[in-house]
Design goal:
The complex is a heterodimer of chains A (114) and B (152). The longest helix of chain A is centred in the last third of the chain and has 16 residues. Chain A has 114 residues and is of the alpha/beta class. Chain A has five helices and five strands, in the order αββαβαβαβα. In chain B, strands 1-2-3-5-4 form a five-stranded antiparallel sheet, covered by helices on one side. The chains are: A alpha/beta (114), B alpha+beta (152). At the A-B interface, helix 2 and helix 3 of A face helix 1, helix 2 and helix 5 of B.
Chain lengths: 114, 152
């Protein structure tokens, strides 16, 4: 699944990183604890969270994540957007709940696999 | 004695959350420039990030030192701060002394030191109450090094 397909599937808006939407994702990780993400998320995965501060970009960058999706209508603060632009991190927002977002992506990924 | 190829120092400011992660990011970029194996770079980056966050969350100020030589990669995180009363307790997953407002940001889950232990091949913590803490981490080049396992 590409980031573009992912964005369409979860009714997401692109905040930053429009130029990277052709990239393929390797999976999805869901957590609001930064150390949990640091310990378990893998390169190329998309991270679903409601945390919106600048450290989210730092974590995404260190792990080479494909994108960060802010769920349940969470919007990244100005500093976060600025940092993401500077570092080339893809940020998306969706009004869908974390459960709905993860559920749709789970189905989408499995439908591709079968 | 192995020749030191790189020795860099990065200051870390306690309480400065917007800048937190910059030292780890610079360490990662340095290792990438040196052409270090990507899995190893990832382990060093994660451990450095956690050590940096510990300084930001718990200490007044500190610094991260990166040394790369023929033996491996060595990261030292030292701070001036309150120290760790009980290191064994601090190593337990889930144990945290971070204040509530910091936990609300998604930090202080009690996974920092356990994450470091998982990533580093060598770990030594020295601490003195109301003076500070020094965390020494060592990472070996592939073959001698442990590979990261995903624990779920």
């Amino acid at each position: 699944m590409t980031l573009k397909e992912l964005a369409a599937g979860i009714e997401a808006e692109v905040v930053t990183g429009e130029e990277r939407l052709g990239e393929k994702i390797t999976g999805v990780y869901v957590s609001d604890l930064l150390s949990d993400v640091m310990g378990h998320a893998r390169e190329g995965e998309v991270w679903l969270t409601i945390q919106t501060h600048t450290n989210v970009v730092a974590v995404a960058l260190l792990l080479n994540l494909a994108a960060v999706v802010f769920t349940a209508g969470a919007k990244p603060d100005a500093l976060t957007v600025e940092k993401a632009k500077k570092e080339g991190t893809v940020l998306l927002t969706t009004h869908l709940s974390t459960f709905e977002t993860a559920g749709r992506l789970y189905l989408k990924q499995n439908e591709k696999a079968t | 004695m192995a020749e030191t190829r790189v020795l860099l120092e990065f200051p870390v400011e306690g309480g400065n959350f917007p800048a937190a992660g910059e030292a780890a990011s610079k360490v990662k970029k340095t290792l990438q420039k040196l052409g270090i194996d990507s899995d190893l770079t990832r382990r060093v980056s994660i451990a450095t990030y956690e050590a940096e966050m510990n300084i930001v969350i718990h200490a007044e100020y500190g610094k991260i030192t990166l040394q790369v030589d023929a033996e491996g990669i060595w990261v030292r995180a030292e701070d001036r701060g309150k120290g760790i009363p009980d290191i064994d307790q601090a190593m337990l997953e889930g144990f945290s002394t971070a204040p509530e407002r910091i936990r609300e940001m998604g930090f202080g889950a009690g996974m920092g030191l356990p994450n470091i232990k998982k990533c580093a091949d060598q770990l030594e913590i020295k601490t003195k109450l109301n003076v500070g803490t020094t965390v020494d981490m060592g990472f070996y080049y592939p073959a001698k090094s442990k590979s990261e396992k995903r624990t779920t």
